[in-house]
Amino acid sequence: MAVDLSMPVLVVDDYKTMIRIIRNLLKQLGFSDVDDAADGTEALGKMRERKYGLVISDWNMEPMTGYELLKEVRTDDGLARTPFIMVTAESKTENVIAAKKAGVNNYIVKPFNAATLKSKIDAVFGE
Amino acid sequence: MSSKSHAEVLAAADGLREKDDISLVDVLTLAEASIQSMKSFIDSLDSKVYSEFREIAGYIQKTKSEIGHLQANDLRSKRIPEAGDELSAIVTSTEEATTQIMECAEAILEADTEDHEAYQKLVNDKVLTIFESCSFQDLTGQRISRVVETLEHIESRVGRFAAAIGAEDSCDVLDEKEEKREKRKKDLILNGPANDGEGVSQDDIDALLNG
Q1: What is residue B1's predicted lDDT score, i.e. its pLDDT?
Q2: Nearest CA to CA, how far is B123 from chain A (Å)?
Q3: Is A82 part of the contact surface with chain B (CB cutoff 8 Å)?
Q4: B194 vs A28, A91, A108: nearest CB
Q5: Is B191's Cβ below 8 Å from some Cβ in A?
Q6: Which residues of B touch A107 (CB under 8 A)?
Q7: How many CA atoms are closer than 13 Å to the CA of B110, on its beta-carbon side?
Q8: How far apart are CA B146 and CA B152, in angstroms?
Q9: Does B199 touch chain A if contact means CB atoms closer than 8 Å?
Q10: Contact assignment for B209 to A100 by CB distance below 8 Å
Q11: Cys staple from B198: which of A37, A94, B36, B194, with CB 3.0 to 4.6 Å?
Q12: Looking at beta carbons, which residues of chain A come within 8 Å of B106?
């Protein structure tokens, strides 16, 4: 399946600078419709109002973490199939295993580069 | 009470019980013997209590002196707030520098490349701003050194105090707020960024996900 560069992408991070970095990287990769949210609660609200083709989320946020957001998304019939990539500084094995069990599609550890982001997005969409 | 005086008192009491006619002198003699035997006990008790009180007073004096060396007021009112201010300044300066650098990069990416001369000038200006923005690293390094100095100061004072009073760590010292925070960290697996050699690499993560 080819990556649809026009699909809406939701970037979730509580750090404005990181949102800006990921937005710029996605723009360089050709994505034109990028939205953002500052935590899981805001992201969930946006996801229930609009269908996103991909969610790229940080783990450690308040009040709702990216891990909680992932579990909420996977148990919501309307959102369960949304591709979800975790981009986080949490790099312990237990985090990766928990995310995998919760149904994450890919996992990127910070700091990362554009090539890693591209390869993980491609992998999620089977390219 | 010595065993000899105790035995004497008991013998005198037994002697009195066997007598039909007990005089006041007999009773006073027994009372005197009792007092004598108690006196030696009270004397020994006084001396022991006095020595224990002296020991406690010495300990209190030493602890007061160590509390003074701890400089708790200086730590609470000056050093810790100053270290907090330094850390806030680090966050602000790194954020400002990152924003400036990204703005420059964004301006270069969005610039019109048709006008070659204008484009070159813009790139030169933005690259210069990027270099200037990177000077935050020097100031940040100095601020971090001051925070490390404060932490070392606290470590040394607290370490000396703990050693002086022979402190042992208690198990349940977290207040309600700290307990709640720790529980959240545990439940939501919030480990934070790993130190060198602690976390797994991107390759390991890929293997875990695909395994």
Answers
A1: 44
A2: 18
A3: no
A4: A91
A5: yes
A6: 205, 209
A7: 8
A8: 10
A9: yes
A10: yes
A11: B194
A12: 24
Give pLDDT < 70 ranges for chain B. Answer: 1-5
Taking an 8 Å cut-off on Cβ atoms, the answer to whether B106 and A24 are in contact is yes
Contact A112 B188 (CB under 8 A): no
Q: What are the extents of the domains in chain B? A: 3-66, 71-168
Contact B106 A110 (CB under 8 A): no
pLDDT, tens digit (0-9, with 9 covering 90-100), for B76-130: 999 999 999 999 999 999 999 999 999 999 999 999 999 999 999 999 999 999 9
Q: What is the pLDDT of residue B167?
A: 81
Provide the pLDDT confidence category of residue A1 given band limits of 50, 70 and 90.
low
Task: Judge whether A24 is closer than 8 Å to chain B, CB to CB.
Answer: yes
Residue A35 exposed, middle or buried by CB count within 10 Å (0-12, 13-18, 19+)? middle
Contact B191 A90 (CB under 8 A): yes
Tell me which amino acid residue B58 is: G
Q: Which residue has the tokens 């550890």?
A: A109
Share above pLDDT 90 across residues of chain A, in percent, rounded to a whole number: 94
A108 touches chain B (CB under 8 A): yes
Cα separation of A15 and A36, whole Å?
Answer: 11
The residues spanned by each domain of chain A are: 9-124
CA atoms within 13 A on the CB side of A107: 31
CATH 3.40.50.300 assigned to domain A9-124? The reply is: no
B193 touches chain A (CB under 8 A): yes
A107-116: which pairs have CB atoms within 8 A and are 24 or more residues apart? Answer: A107/B205, A107/B209, A108/B202, A108/B205, A109/B199, A109/B200, A109/B201, A109/B202, A109/B205, A110/A18, A110/B193, A112/A87, A112/B202, A114/A25, A114/A28, A114/A29, A116/B202
Q: Tell me what pLDDT residue B5 has.
A: 65
Q: What is the pLDDT of residue A67?
A: 97
